[in-house]
């Protein structure tokens, strides 16, 4: 009896322990089940809404739940053992380098909430990577937000990741500068409809087109298998199968990157950049939502619910989330400089925003404290025949019609003559390299000796390498130079003192020399702020809105947010600071578009109306870009990433404009899910005999869109 009793107790304890600590485990949401094996790898991902359950994990490619990365060694470590404690919902992952990661797994109705709680010992690990999560899906890859989509009626399923905190970024841990290369890769979304030529293979990389300077010329391949990439949160293998990944980095440590957003183009070769350490910004606490659901309902049934549940940014228009297709709405964009009827036009069209594009660039200048028309709004740049108006006066009139106004800034480019650039440059500027002055100089000396010439021969900025922006800062003086001698004593060449109207001054031996990070010329000329100053610039944009009545921005030069080496984190932080200050100021949602779309801006950005004319959508030929492939490329990117497709600043109403053309534009806009900026030049509009018909056509379609009048099958057709 005692022997039997002891055996029973032993078996009972074993059963209890097995339930508390397991080597393998299944996790399930309403739509999705995953299996994590005893090594910490996902070996099964199933759609449980169909019978039999469809498997999406390739048999030959299991997925590591969390990988570790040592950037100095350029080496990944993947888990070799996993132990799950059901009681507290944590998974302990062991790695071959001796590190142990603790991850909490919290299944929700629509997603799994994964959080990295600890990693010890670190052993040189400066980044972690969720995944890569490998799927057998070969259809659409959302490389910005990290989603693998099969949109076919037969499969209709998507698997994705979504960051739940700012320091978790779409992409792989090895991504240089935390912003993926802007390039083409080969991927066909449908091998039967679009079979690859024998000369190409899946995943093959191609550089962009053009000279590397004209952004329109970048778009150079109309073939459907040339897929332009605006991120690397999703990638394809040699079989076209899509994998997704997110990463998080320890930003508290000093590091140097060799970065260019377009590294394969001669005009944009990388620069060496010493990246600013950011205290308190670490990968512990990195968190993602892993989800799987029917693709046709994923956006509003899953992604929107993740955003709301996790309190992620949730900008709205007309009371709806800006990602909701029934909330998509075009904007008005001004031309011609006359504004008598622009508000009336916009209201009649059913649009909600006017972009004052013909007012030129709005440069961030904290020196005006947000008053772009003067402290008493004495400047009146907006011309009406009844009398010119300030931005605030015009915004107040527009607001009575439920319409907002906006401008086109150059994001974080600190232009000459602004408070933080010149004639007294800020001490909070981003620099590429830091050196020491080895011999004191007077205010007129041009012999400047440095302690180390390394990388000083590089022309500043990865973008364009514009010679006129190649400068250093010593104290409060900007100094232009071109090149450095190769033998001791190392001296800067072609020196020009007191650059950008700064004051030449004496500097002592041992003073710090900062080689500054800059933008590009062609009217975008400026210095890049460090992270703290960038935070202030973001808040400044919110102040401009609060003071002048603006609620819209077209952030040209948006890629400059990557120039400090923090990539998508920098973009997230910038827009978060702007939105938070706007919220505190009672501004509410700021609608914005910009020069790019990234994982850093996806949550905040409402639209992406970049470019225009026959590059985006040609109403004459009825094609996505007849002059270049820009229309096709941006359509493919945005559609795959659950974002409204942009048709640019386009379709101006002129004397010969026909209502039938706008029937077509609106049908495409509603069917595909696009927005655009309708160019309105008051003189041209009034010269159009079909003006009234055009207004009626557009307003009718927009009312139907807002009412969500078209079912999915109609849009698909």
Describe the structure.
The chain is α+β, with helices and mostly antiparallel strands. Helices cover 19% and strands 26% of the residues. It is built from 11 helices and 39 strands. The protein has a 9-stranded antiparallel β-sheet. Strands 28, 29, 30, 31, 36, 37, 38 and 39 form an 8-stranded parallel β-sheet that branches. Strands 7, 8, 13, 17, 21 and 22 form a 6-stranded antiparallel β-sheet that branches. Strand 10 (90-94) and strand 11 (100-107) form a beta hairpin. Helix 5 runs parallel beside helix 6 (567-584). The longest helix has 19 residues, at 2-20. The radius of gyration is 27 Å and the shape is globular. The model is unreliable at 1-19 (pLDDT under 50).
How would you briefly describe this protein structure?
This protein is of the alpha+beta class and 717 residues long. Helices cover 19% and strands 26% of the residues. The strands form 8 sheets. It has a 9-stranded antiparallel sheet with strand order 1-9-10-11-12-25-16-15-14. Strands 28, 29, 30, 31, 36, 37, 38 and 39 form an 8-stranded parallel sheet that branches.
What is the element layout, followed by pairings?
Elements: H1 2-20, E1 21-22, E2 25-28, E3 32-36, E4 41-47, E5 54-55, E6 63-64, E7 66-70, E8 75-77, E9 81-85, E10 90-94, E11 100-107, E12 112-120, E13 127-134, E14 140-142, E15 147-150, E16 157-163, E17 168-170, E18 183-186, E19 205-206, E20 226-229, E21 234-236, E22 242-249, E23 255-259, E24 271-275, E25 287-293, H2 298-309, E26 316-317, E27 320-321, E28 331-335, H3 342-349, E29 353-355, E30 361-362, H4 391-399, E31 404-409, E32 431-436, E33 471-474, E34 477-480, E35 512-516, H5 531-548, E36 550-555, H6 567-584, E37 591-594, H7 630-640, E38 645-650, H8 659-673, E39 674-681, H9 682-686, H10 691-706, H11 712-716
Parallel strand pairs: 28-29, 28-39, 29-31, 30-31, 31-36, 36-37, 38-39
Antiparallel strand pairs: 1-9, 2-3, 3-4, 4-5, 4-6, 7-8, 7-13, 9-10, 10-11, 11-12, 12-25, 13-22, 14-15, 15-16, 16-25, 17-22, 18-19, 18-20, 21-22, 23-24, 26-27, 32-35, 33-34, 33-35
Helix pairs in contact: 5-6, 8-10
Keywords: Signal
């Amino acid at each position: 009896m005692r022997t039997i009793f002891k055996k029973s107790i032993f078996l009972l304890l074993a059963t209890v322990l097995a339930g508390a600590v397991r080597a393998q485990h299944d996790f399930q949401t309403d739509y999705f089940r995953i299996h994590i094996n005893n090594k910490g790898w996902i070996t099964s991902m199933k759609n449980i809404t169909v019978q039999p359950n469809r498997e999406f994990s390739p048999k030959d490619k299991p997925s590591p739940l969390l990988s570790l990365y040592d950037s100095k060694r350029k080496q990944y470590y993947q888990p070799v053992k996993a132990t799950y404690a059901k009681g507290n919902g944590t998974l302990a992952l062991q790695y071959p380098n001796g590190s142990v990661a603790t991850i909490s797994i919290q299944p929700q109705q629509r997603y799994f909430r994964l959080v990295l709680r600890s990693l010890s010992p670190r052993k040189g690990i400066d980044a972690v990577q969720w995944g890569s999560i490998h799927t057998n899906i070969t259809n659409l890859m959302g490389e910005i937000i990290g989603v693998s989509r099969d949109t076919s009626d037969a499969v209709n399923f998507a698997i994705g990741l979504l960051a739940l905190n700012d320091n978790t970024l779409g992409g792989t841990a090895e991504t240089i500068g935390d912003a993926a290369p802007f390039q083409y890769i080969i991927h066909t979304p449908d091998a039967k409809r679009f079979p690859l030529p024998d000369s190409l293979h899946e995943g093959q990389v191609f550089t962009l087109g053009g000279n590397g300077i004209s952004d329109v010329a970048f778009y150079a391949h109309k073939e459907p298998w040339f897929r332009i990439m605006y991120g690397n949160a999703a990638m394809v293998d040699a079989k076209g199968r899509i994998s997704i990944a997110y990463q998080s980095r320890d930003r508290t440590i000093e590091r140097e990157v060799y970065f260019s957003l377009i590294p394969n183009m001669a005009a944009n070769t990388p620069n060496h950049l010493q990246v600013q350490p950011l205290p308190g910004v670490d990968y512990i606490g990195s968190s993602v939502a892993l989800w799987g659901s029917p693709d046709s309902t994923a956006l509003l049934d899953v992604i929107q619910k993740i955003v709301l549940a996790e309190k992620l940014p949730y900008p709205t228009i007309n009371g709806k989330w800006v990602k909701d297709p029934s909330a998509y709405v075009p904007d008005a964009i001004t031309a011609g400089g006359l504004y008598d009827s622009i508000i009336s036009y916009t209201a009649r069209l059913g649009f909600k925003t006017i972009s004052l594009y013909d007012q030129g660039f709005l440069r961030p200048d904290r020196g005006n404290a947000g008053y772009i028309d003067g402290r008493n709004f004495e400047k009146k740049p907006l011309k009406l025949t009844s009398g010119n108006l300030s931005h605030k006066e015009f915004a107040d009139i527009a607001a009575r019609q439920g319409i907002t106004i906006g401008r086109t800034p150059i994001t974080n480019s600190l232009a000459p003559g602004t408070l933080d650039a010149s004639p007294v440059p800020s001490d909070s500027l981003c620099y590429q390299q830091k050196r020491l002055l080895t011999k004191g100089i007077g205010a007129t000396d041009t012999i400047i000796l440095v302690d180390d010439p390394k990388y000083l021969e590089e022309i500043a900025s990865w973008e364009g390498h514009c010679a006129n922006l190649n400068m250093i800062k010593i104290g409060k003086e900007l100094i232009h130079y071109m090149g450095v001698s190769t033998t001791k004593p190392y001296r800067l060449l072609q020196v020009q003192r007191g650059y950008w109207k700064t004051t030449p001054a004496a500097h002592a031996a041992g003073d710090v020399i900062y080689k500054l990070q800059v933008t590009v010329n062609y009217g975008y000329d400026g210095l890049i702020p460090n992270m703290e100053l960038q935070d202030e610039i973001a808040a400044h944009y919110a102040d401009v809105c609060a003071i002048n009545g603006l609620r819209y921005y077209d952030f040209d030069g948006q890629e400059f947010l990557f120039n400090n080496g923090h990539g998508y984190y920098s973009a997230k932080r910038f827009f978060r600071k702007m939105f938070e200050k706007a919220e505190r100021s009672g501004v509410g949602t700021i609608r914005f578009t910009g020069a790019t779309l990234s994982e850093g801006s996806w949550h905040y950005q409402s639209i992406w109306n970049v470019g225009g004319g026959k590059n985006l959508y040609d109403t004459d030929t009825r094609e996505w870009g007849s002059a270049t492939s820009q229309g096709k490329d941006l359509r493919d990117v945005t559609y795959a990433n659950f974002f409204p497709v942009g048709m640019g600043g386009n379709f101006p109403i002129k004397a010969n404009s026909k209502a039938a053309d706008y029937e077509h534009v609106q049908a495409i806009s509603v069917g595909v899910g696009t927005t655009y900026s309708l160019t309105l030049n008051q003189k041209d509009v009034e010269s159009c005999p079909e003006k009234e018909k055009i207004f009626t056509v557009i307003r009718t379609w927009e009312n139907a869109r807002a009412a969500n009048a078209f079912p999915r099958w109609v849009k698909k057709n």
